[in-house]
Design a protein that fits this description.
The chain has helices spanning 2-43, 67-70, 74-83, 97-111, and strands spanning 53-54, 59-60. The protein is mainly alpha-helical. The chain has one domain (28-111): Cytochrome c-like domain (Cytochrome Bc1 Complex, Chain D, domain 2, Orthogonal Bundle). Helix 1 packs across helix 4 (97-111) and helix 3 crosses helix 4. 23% of the residues are buried. Keywords: Electron transport, Heme, Iron, Metal-binding, Signal, Transport.
Length: 115
């Protein structure tokens, strides 16, 4: 009986902790997405918006593919940013890993590529 009560108390404590951390995580995600949006529009050099169309960013670039149509996931975006692809240059060494992650998360979410 005592073990059952302790087990229930532990589960309740863990759930309480999870709900305390979730808002912080959501705020971190929102900050990362905002950073990615800024990088997309003007922070990366050259700016992604010069070549790519992405409705959420108000970008109408016509050199690269429309990201709204392509709907890439974050992994695909991060790989393209690190390695370059086609006419797109590599941003490896120009953007930090955190900036690449933020930009990839933003493009995936804004284009509908994140699941």
């Amino acid at each position: 009986m005592k073990r059952t009560i302790q087990k229930h108390a532990l589960v309740a404590a863990l759930w309480s902790l999870a709900f305390t951390v979730l808002p912080v995580h959501a705020a971190d995600d929102a900050a990362q997405l905002q950073q990615g949006k800024v990088l997309f529009g003007q922070g990366a050099v050259p700016a992604c918006a010069l070549c790519h169309a992405l409705k959420d960013a108000g970008a109408e670039g016509a050199v690269g593919p429309s990201l709204d149509e392509l709907k890439p996931d974050a992994k695909r975006v991060a790989t393209a940013l690190r390695n370059g692809i086609g006419q797109m240059p590599s941003y490896n060494g120009k953007l930090s890993d955190a900036q690449i992650a933020a930009l990839a998360a933003y493009v995936a979410k804004a284009s509908g590529g994140s699941k």
